[in-house]
Amino acid sequence: MISVFFKTYGCQANVADSAGIASFLEGLGCVQVESEGLADLIIINTCAIREKAEQKLYSYLGELLEFKEKLPYLKIGIIGCVASYRKDEMLKRFEYISFVSGARDERTTFLTYLADVIVQLQTEKQLFAHNFDRTGDVTLTQLAILGRDVKLAMSKRSLVLPARLLKEGAQAAMGGTLAPEGEIKRAFINITTGCNNYCTFCIVPFTRGREASYPLEDIVMRVSHEVVAGAKEITLIGQNVNSYTCPQTAVRFAALLEAVALIPGSFWVRYVSPHPKDMTRDVLEVMAKYPDKLCAWCHFPLQSGSSRVLELMNRTYTKEEYLRQVDLIRAVVPGVALSTDIIVGFPGETHEEFLETRDVAQQVGFDMAYSFVYSRRKYTKAFSMGDTCSPEEKAARLADLQEVLRAGSLATAQRYIGKNLRVLVEKRTTNGKLLARSSGNHRVVFDGDGSLVGTFIEVCITEAGQSELRGEIIVAPTAISKEHGRAA
Ligand code: SF4
Questions:
Q1: Does the Cβ of 343 fall within 6 Å of ligand 1?
Q2: d(CA 278, ligand 1 centre) in Å
């Protein structure tokens, strides 16, 4: 049996890709393991959105050399966004990498290659188990035949996946389920791939290519399959979910969301990420119509609170339009929680413009926020924009903004004290408490029995910190109520 370890960096689209590949490999009889030291195959799904993520990848690759030296047949594969545009550099710099396949490479081709890697690994593992002392040579010879650049290697070969694997491969491209030990099953389903927006700071359109949507029917089938297999939380993923358009029927995101909400079963649905320029009332009305399935949570990326900077970023909305959209979301979806992404220090951002961002953050009062200093990415338009802000100034802006965001999160969290929330119990923590998640995506901690993991229960919130709510169970597991997860 071949054991596989996944290291996944970056966004939920990467998580969905890793989960899909994991499901495909399980179909080939592989098992997922929790650490590198137990693996025959390590797959690293890479992120190029910030320079820091890339640096982390390189130091991680350095650490893996030790594992490769101990286990000569160990294969290390790199996939995802960095693999899309640094393939040659990686192959040259890290000789012990077995294969590289970019996020834009055709998925069935990659899975066909991967199926072959598994067959090779089975042979090499057997040879190794029988003390065949030239295993290292065998590995190198076979790698040379297969080729380390997946796209190039497959263009020279005519491997064909058997029909069953072809079908599983097509499903795997849409994502799959992750279930770390002792936790609930979560399914991550891609509803679109790629992006057409070309925000000037973002490398995704270059690494993942043009936007394409999966058929609604296939998505509903995939979600139904995951629910039957025990998934309790489904996340629908697209770089801009609001631009979803079924290639067969041309129906849009609201119709997809409704179709998923109508799938029978006890599960919650989240989606990431909407784009403020494209969010429409019909999507919000569907969320309000199915509170038992569709979580009252919206991750709504602001990026900047200055209309001039937003224009430089090519976000195609103004500060005022963003705030109007927030009002609409709050008006249509009762008790909705909001999270966001914010960049500080974008090229040309003045101190006054930063203060506008700070002000919008204060006005909105996000439940949660991810904030970053701008990271310069090759190929993007912003790469060549003049940068007038020093690293020290950027760091000071980030620290200042994060203080505002923390205060906002604390204030919104405190509004839940004394309220009853329906939560999904995710796992037992190391200190014996239960960790659950509310519909608004808040972490909720309380005392309870481990058998409650995977159930929906009602909890009264007694304390609220900036990153966590604490409470007490008030109702034993039941079917999901209409009011689930919403603060009154
Ligand atoms: S919408 Fe903008 S930030 Fe999001 S993936 Fe597309 S280009 Fe990147």
A1: no
A2: 13
Residue with tokens 């290390």: 76
**Ligand 1 proximity of 275 Cβ (cutoff 6 Å):** yes
What is the best residue among 239, 275, 304, 372 to mutate for testing ligand 1's pocket, by most ligand atoms within 8 Å of CB? 239
pTM: 0.88
Assigned CATH class of 420-475: mainly beta
Give me the residue label for tokens 């008006």: 331
Residue type, 30: C
Record: fold of 3-167 = Rossmann fold (3.40.50)
pLDDT of residue 223: 95
How far from the centroid of its chain's Cα atoms is residue 332's Cα?
Answer: 26
What is the phi/psi pair of residue 37, to 5°? -65, -15
d(CA 56, CA 58): 6
What's the token pair of residue 71?
């286990």
Residue 404: which residues within 8 A CB-CB, separation 6 or more? 358, 361, 362
**Nearest CA owner, ligand 1 atom 1:** 197
Residues 81-101 pLDDT 10s: 999 888 888 888 898 999 999
CATH code linked to domain 174-414: 3.80.30.20
pLDDT (tens digit per residue) in 311-328: 999 999 999 999 999 999
Structural domain boundaries in the chain: 3-167, 174-414, 420-475
